[in-house]
Each structure stands twice: as C-alpha cells, then as structure tokens.
From TrEMBL:
Signal peptide coordinates: none
Organism of origin: Rhodocytophaga rosea
Superkingdom assignment: Bacteria
InterPro entries, per the entry: HTH-like_dom, Transposase_IS3/IS150/IS904
Record protein name field: Transposase
Annotated HTH-like domain residues: 45-97
Coiled-coil ranges (or none): none
PANTHER family in the record: TRANSPOSASE INSF FOR INSERTION SEQUENCE IS3B-RELATED (PTHR46889), TRANSPOSASE INSO FOR INSERTION SEQUENCE ELEMENT IS911B-RELATED (PTHR46889:SF4)
Membrane-traversing stretches: none
Amino acid sequence: MFVREHTQKWPVQLVCQVLQLSRSAYYKWLSGNLALSSNQIENPVDKAVKETFEQHRRRYGVRRIVVELQEKGLNIGSYPVRQVMQKNGLKAIQPRSFVPRTTASISD
C-alpha cells in the first residue's frame, strides 16, 4: 500500500491527510481487521445485470434482462434482477413512438 511504502520518508499523519484517509482506517487495515462491506464487494450477478443493461443502451427492463442472462447460461429469476436494478437505480428508458410531424396539410 502507498502509505506503508512512504511512512519511512513522511509521517503517517501527513500521508493519510494527503490521501484523505483517516489514520484509524489505515491502522485498522494494517492490523488486518478491516473487512470490506457488502457494498464494496461486486457480486457477479450485479455485474452481469449492469453489463446487460448498458449493452442494450438502457432500454431493457427486468423481463428482457432475465431472458438475456438465461440465454447466456446464468440461471436467475426476475426477483433478484429486479432487486439489483432497484439497488443501483437502473430504470429502463421507453423509446418514444414515431409520430410524423407534417406542417403541410394538402386536402382535396
């Protein structure tokens, strides 16, 4: 880690301040007691849902994403996909339907 490498040359307090890291967090990490929270761990299902959502230009909703993931071989239902989308704020965009806009109305 950067802080450990530079503590010989600079004080820990200064290095942590520059990196906007609390000294207590550094020492906790150093002792090995710092565990990653569930928010910091990327779930493979979360990653697959996000990639599929972005791959289809934010147009696919829960049902279409479930079908896409099942075709890729990932056995998943709609409820977990719905939870992932809600947790990450992913909302499908419904494209507007085409409506011709003409200004010339020629009638006989």
